[in-house]
Design goal:
four-stranded mixed β-sheet, ACP_syn_III_C, fatty acid biosynthesis, 34% helix, Beta-ketoacyl-[acyl-carrier-protein] synthase III, binds coenzyme A, 2 domains, 13 strands, Peroxisomal Thiolase, Chain A, domain 1, cytoplasm, lipid biosynthesis
Length: 332
Amino acid sequence: MSSPRYAALVGWGMAVPQRLVTNEELAQRIDTSDAWIRSRTGIAQRYVAGPDEPTSVLAAAAGRAALTRAGLGPEAVDTLIVATCTPDRPFPATACAVQRMLGMGRGAAFDLVAACSGFVYGLSVGTSLVRSGMSRVLLLIAADVFTHFIDWEDRNTCVLFGDGAGAVVLQVSAAPFGSLASNIGAWGAGETLMAVDVGGTLLPTTSELLSERRQYVYMNGREIFRHAVRGMCESAEQAVREAGVSFDAIRLVVPHQANVRIIEAVAKRLGLPMERVFVNLDRYGNTSAASVPLALCEAAEQGLIAPGDLVLLTAFGGGLTWGSSVVRWGCE
Ligand code: COA
């Protein structure tokens, strides 16, 4: 019998755009205030991509950093997944541009669309590819330039989002590192609770739709809030149960960074003190798919997780989508 395969996280990296936008700057442009944004969301600032920072550029920077930390060259990667809902172009996949930028070989490269759950979806799919033997070294990048779809005159949405990219390298391992249990799910009936309607095949762009500002994201904040808490809690509980561990064994929870009140509600429902829950949305806002790996990278940089520790990742996003993973950090 062949020994079991795992997909250890052997490298990680992140990238954010150059331009920093504070709450105060937004308050000079629209009817809002630093106090409102901080108290309702926990966000103090975010990074916003410029014209020379499309999704592929941020993704490639994060991917390069992850490969450097793994001590691997781009030629070692046989599979590249870019989780994004804000691709460079409708087609081809942004992953193909990133493959070119990183100077990789001719391995598989594809995009995965699961909005803010993109990284946990990608980790689940990527781990399956490695564990099945289809891939030996897989680069998973989650990158979004969500602000491209933001109406900067809509105070209900524009204060919430920022741009960024995070990446991990998965490598085949005989020892039990990487994702030990994961689940992903979706509820398509909630499709229009949060969406961008215009620009696809359903509603191609017309000047009339543009004049109605329909090319931008809209959402039902309160409903999303409710679904997010429930979705992340149920999915996290399932992942912990299926990993055969208890919440006491989890060193750190790294949740999707949308709103600190959502995170606090999840922690409360799971019976976890906030000291064991990582939060960095005050500095980045909601970076969509990039949010979980940005938080994971910072937690690792800050020494909050050490090799062998169990980390619980949980996310929720448009779709509606959700997913969680119990990860043993590090490698042999
Ligand atoms: N500045 C000042 N006031 C604002 C504002 C802003 N940026 N945005 C909204 N308001 C106003 C609203 O217009 C509303 O005013 P009204 O009562 O006169 O109509 C008031 O603040 C309260 O709005 P409400 O919707 O009750 O606030 P809330 O406590 O639910 O917080 C969100 C709003 C959007 C922050 C919150 O619902 C949320 O975070 N939801 C989840 C959204 C999300 O994370 N989506 C991505 C998931 S991946």
